[in-house]
Design goal:
Hypothetical Protein, Haloacid Dehalogenase-like Hydrolase, Chain: A, domain 2, 275 residues, five-stranded antiparallel sheet, five-stranded parallel sheet, Sugar phosphatase YidA, Rossmann fold, alpha/beta, HAD-SF_hydro_IIB, HAD-like_sf
């Protein structure tokens, strides 16, 4: 029996125009009515989840920053946080800047509310990247960016794709951190061992839910660990290869209400088992 639904947002639950369809809203509401916990698990920070929360009915738990930050949306309680240490992010920044001229960095801190962007970053950013206006990002020195631990340490280059940049980071041969990407035009460096699966496992332990009782949805490389960990991992029809490889099944795309389709089927299956 499924007791918790963990869903990515962008490219998964949200339609391409970043809205929640009426069918998806109804499916999520039906799952809650059946006693199933529904949890957004996203690369977004809480401020990026809040605009979606009302439309999707999220009022309880959320896992933000790729699992590094567990919060309760209703009370504002922080369940847990995992930070990239200053020494680790400095080692990455200095080694990568020497290898790849033009690379830029951002430190996301203090529950995702503080965004410290290196000078030049705002010029290549768009609102959709971080749900922040580039003009409000400020211009900081690299030392300012590296001065405090980060919930998420962002790495970006104007000319390199995230996959190309990921190869450069891995070529450094450094340890002490995790790195992923979510379909956005940058890499996301996290504390060592952290992933969406890491955060989801901690939340499930808190709630007394076994991994076999978890249904997870995702589409991007940063969803792969979560889909592999969950008892039932579902990749979207528009998913990246990393997510497709580990999923137990594939549903329709986010434009075709793929999440709702599976939830509706699961609710029917569970109702049949109870009769």
């Amino acid at each position: 029996m499924i007791r918790l639904i963990a869903t990515d947002l962008d490219g998964t639950l949200l339609r391409p125009d970043l809205t929640v369809s009426a069918r998806t809203r109804a499916a999520l509401a039906a799952a809650r009515a059946a006693g199933i916990q529904v949890v957004p698990v996203t690369a977004r920070q809480p401020r990026g989840v809040r605009p979606i929360a009302e439309a999707a009915g999220f009022a309880d738990y959320a896992l933000c920053g790729n699992g590094a930050h567990g919060v309760h949306l209703g009370t504002g309680e922080t369940l847990f946080e995992a930070h990239v240490p200053e020494a680790v992010q400095r080692a990455v920044a200095e080694a990568l800047a020497a290898r790849v001229p033009g690379v830029l960095f951002v430190s996301v801190r203090e529950g995702g509310e503080v965004f410290v962007a290196q000078d030049g970053y705002a010029a290549i950013a768009h609102f959709e990247d971080h749900k922040r206006e580039p003009g409000e990002m400020g211009t900081f020195t690299l030392d300012d960016v590296l001065a405090r631990p980060s919930l998420k340490f962002i790495v970006r280059h104007a000319a390199l794709t995230p996959r190309e940049l990921l190869a450069e980071v891995r070529a450094l041969g450094l340890g002490g951190f995790a790195v992923t990407h979510s379909g956005a035009p940058f890499l996301e460096v996290l504390a060592e061992g952290v992933s969406k699966a890491w955060g989801l496992e901690r939340l499930c332990a808190r709630l007394g839910i076994a991994r076999e009782e978890v249904l997870a949805f995702g589409d991007a490389p940063n969803d792969a660990e979560m889909l592999a960990w969950a008892g039932r991992g579902v990749a979207m029809g528009n998913a990246e290869p990393e997510a497709l490889e580990v999923a137990d099944e594939v549903t329709r795309t986010n434009a075709q209400d793929g999440v709702a389709l599976v939830i509706e089927r699961v609710l029917r299956e569970q109702a049949h088992c109870l009769t």
